[in-house]
Amino acid sequence: MTPDNKISRIQELVYEIRVGEVMQKDVVTISPQTQMSNLRGILRKERISGAPVMDGDELVGIISIEDFIKWLADREEDCPISEKMSKDVQTLYADEPLTQAVNKFERFGFGRFAVVDRQTTKLLGIITKGNIVEGLLKKLEIDHFKEEEEVYRRRVEHFFEDILADKIVLLFQYDVVGRDFKRAGEGASRLKTSLKRLGLDPQVVRRVAIATYEAEMNLVIYTKGGKIRARVEPQEIYVKVADSGPGIPDVQKVLQPGYSTAPEWVRNLGFGAGMGLNNIQKCATKMDLRSELGKGTQLHIRIETKDGALSETK
To answer: What is the pTM of this model?
Structure first.
């Protein structure tokens, strides 16, 4: 296998880091009554390329340098920012994993997103692609000096070898609640932490974490909930994700990259891009999807622990 088949630490981090950890909290906001002719001075003074437009405590739009340039090019008369701002405001929640921000940047092509509190919708910050890059680099720098992974590795380095038995199996189970986006990803995160503490190869842990996260999100989005069961053996990790949801009408179609049946409100949250199962396939040594209408779906994921479990998508 080529190095491209490996899951990088950066790919892992976009599932691990939350939007609130990398967003810019000291946000410059602009009033909708501000004139367009004053926008350039504000952006230059604050050294920003765009800002949320706030009418009191309410987020009513986003204004950017691109909006200003277009206004200049059209040679229109001066007017309030409210007439030129983007009113269809797409936001992110501070507690969402960074992968949702990446998905939304790719889908909408925006330069920035306002970040709000999930419960109150209060503006908490703003996030740009630059914030994401800066946050990832900072985390990588911390990781470079962090010895926690090696401490765990030394602590349980010979975990399987030290147990005297003909066969060793560790079982983990996580209950997932449907439509609970605030807790979405908790099961995958807890499993990842457990596997790290067992001293497993970081490449294996990353593959399991990403595959399990994507599977967990499918439970949250499309069903009333389900269970994630992981079986850890010396040579492989086997994950079974099951629900009693509506089932999938066409299993082969949902395996196509980009195909999604997610409703628009789910897409607006940054989910349902149709790449979840494809991402799982890339992480798995083998993946099997079984579904029956009206009875539910079962997803079986096998990841070998040998040599970092390079994917052999089947």
So the answer is: 0.69
